[in-house]
Write a structure and sequence with these properties.
Elements lengths: L2 H4 L13 H15 L6 H25 L12 H10 L1 H19 L1 H23 L4 H27 L3 H19 L8 H31 L11 H10 L1
Helix pairs in contact: 3-4, 3-5, 4-5, 4-6, 5-6, 6-7, 7-9, 8-9
Amino acid sequence: MSILDSLPDEPESGSSPESQPAQNQWLDQQDKLEQPQLKVDAPLRMVETAFLSSAASLIWFVNFYFPLGPVLRIFFPIPIALVYLRWGKRAAWMAALTCGLLLAVLMGPIRSLLFVMPYAFMGVLLGATWNRRVPWIVSITLGTLLATLGIFFRIWLLSVLSGEDLWVYVINQVTEITEWIFLKLQVLANPSVFFIQIGAIAVILLNNFIYLFVVHLAAWLLLDRLGNPIPRPPNWIQVLMDYES
């Protein structure tokens, strides 16, 4: 006698209302057993984070030993920012940490720190601002402040390692530039030390502001093609780029 023969006959109109919840639950359990839901996001997140971390580290490594001017420097923070845009804050911090560890193995901890501060942190910062769609002026300003802190961190770290105050070297360079400007303007005065220090900080801020602006331009042109667009630039930049194209 088979199991089917032992089952009671069912009415032709369908099962009774009392048996519907049990049947639905049984069918749901069968679907879960027959069609398991595999999470593919976790391996993809790990692979992309590792790949982009390696790309950022390789750009820094190549630029350090084979400098190509400011070309590769533009792309230092972009891979980590792309990780933030694709997978969020946690993945971006993991990418920054991975870059630091990888460069520490390849180049030593000191050179690794010179990348992490400010470029790895800058990648996380830019990814956060781009993900929240803030205007360019805000993200560029925040990046400029972080890059300026990175410059002072580099001066402090190298001064400690070398045993010399490298800030004095910066001041001497700015003093020569200021004296040359005063000579061209025929100003018969010697700039004070306070004025020289303010001028040095202003030059660093201006340089970092221009750098962040170029980074935004490169990211705007590159990440749009990768399917992760950043906020739109001001209208005059869009008009200029359309004119250039």
